[in-house]
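The material for today's practical consists of a large collection of protein records. There is nothing in a record beyond a sequence line and a structure line. As an example, a complete record with its sequence and its structure tokens follows:
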Amino acid sequence: MASTPKGAAAVDKRRLILDAAVVVFARQGYGGCRVSDIADEAGVAYGLVYHYFRSKDAVLDTLFLERWNVLVDVIRDVERRPAPVPEKLEAIAGFIIDSYRYDPNLMKVIIVEVTRAANTFGRTHLAKIREAYDAIADIVEEGQQRGEVRTDITAQFAAMAFYGAIEQVLTGWIFDVLPRSPEGYDEAKTFIVETIFDGLRADSTSTTR
């Protein structure tokens, strides 16, 4: 049997700890668990968690930044596509909803413990969180310049409303307010864009500046 390289083994242990932390944070809440709970879930020694992460905060930091950086990259990629604004917004909504669909525990942790957290931890990441909002706002602003989007609503406000709608739907699934089903996930991608973009569309009834 071939031996596993040391570097690969280290990555595996680190990933194992992160995956275990997702389960524990989602089940118990970030504030309600200890590093030892993560170690128990991962099936590793307590001290090994500290070998890779200096604290429980560092574990949550890593989980958030890994996923959020991917989201920002996806939004920027969508922004560069030669497509109308509704199509771009649906691609972003689709990515976020599919992220929840295939990894609900991780998305629950990110939403409940970071992006919607009014505590010090959430505030620490405001600049990083705003990167996603700003990238969506750039898409809206481009639509305004092309005449697709009304100009009496600021791009930043529209971006916040759009992302907020997605996050609220995910929260509905997290807390069992909305039923979860493959059909429901797919419908949400369209419903969110139609709900928000109908109010942003340049030909909607509004008083433009």
